[in-house]
Amino acid sequence: MKLPSLFTAAAVATTMSVSLQAEEVEIKTQQLSEHIHVLFGQGGNIAAHVGKDGTYIIDDQFAKLAPKIKAALKNLNPNAPEFVINTHHHGDHTGGNEVFAQSGAHVIAHHNVHKRLQQKHGEGSQYLPKLSFGQDLTLHFNGEHARAVHFAHAHTDGDAVIFFDTANVVHMGDIYFNLGSLPFVDVDSGGSVDGILAAVEQVMTQIDDSTQVIPGHGPMSNKAGLQRYYQLLSKAKSLMVAAIDEHQDLESVLAADPLGALELEYANWLPKERVTTLFYRSLTIENHGH
Question: Which intervals hold domain Metallo-beta-lactamase (predicted)?
């Protein structure tokens, strides 16, 4: 999982969005089941559900890629998507909201995603969800009952995991970074290390060995991959807790380099110092009250 090429691709996908031209990005489609396809481009992985009722997608990457994403979706179904479900509010997952809304899609997301997108884009913006939910919502479409389930204070305060029970597929959003490294814990958006661990643990109890797991970033995975990720995250947490107990303040913890023991590679936008700082902020009491 720590292949340089994979890591580089992941780093490029998440960090160089500003400098890379949209025409350089290729949208790749992988079919997972009769109705579900995953689209890999630049930003968060997109799931497309296609069937007799039409099309809906989970996340939509960046606005500038919308024409390419639309073209890839047209190959699956000539009609524009009717719904977009956002797994959380970050721009590499919601950037296409406005474009798809203008084509007739209704955006669905957690209440906190609506709140954060409203703060960013303003009331009445087409980036905002038309439907928002609290704990869960089920979309009955194309013969599938897709459950969007909220997990509190995980990657952010608005995360939803989408379970396709009939197809035995789950889209984790950025609760799961499948890059052989540690996730981005968005503490400033209500995220927490404990919340990510709790979410992963709960998802693992609801899937089996043949479940196909779509991560927010990185290649397709499964329950075994999710378990490895959980173990890595648990190990990182225990190393950080021990360092915080011993050194107390952030500067001393950074100097002690507790995550160094894991020998991981890090993306340019998420260096080890930043990961350590976010874990520290999440795991220390003064920042732990949400």
Answer: 43-217
**Number of other CB atoms surrounding residue 269 within 10 Å:** 12
Residue-wise pLDDT for 183-239, tens only, equals 999 999 999 999 999 999 999 999 999 999 999 999 999 999 999 999 999 999 999
- From the number of C-beta atoms within 10 Å of its C-beta (0-12, 13-18, 19+), residue 152 rates as middle
pTM over 0.85: yes
**Residue 138: pLDDT above 60?**
yes
Segments making up each domain of the chain, as ranges: 4-237
Alpha carbons within 13 angstroms on the beta-carbon side of residue 63 total: 10
Q: Output the average pLDDT for the chain.
A: 92
Nearest alpha carbon to residue 165 among 211, 109, 200, 113 = 211
**Dihedral angle sign, alpha carbons of residues 72, 75, 80, 84:** negative
Start-to-end Cα distance in the chain: 33
Distance, in Å, from the CA atom of 196 to the CA atom of 209, rounded to the nearest integer, reads: 21
Q: Which amino acid is it at 22? A: A
Q: Identify which of 92, 94, 124 has the alpha carbon closest to the alpha carbon of residue 109.
A: 94
Token pair, residue 8, equals 């580089």
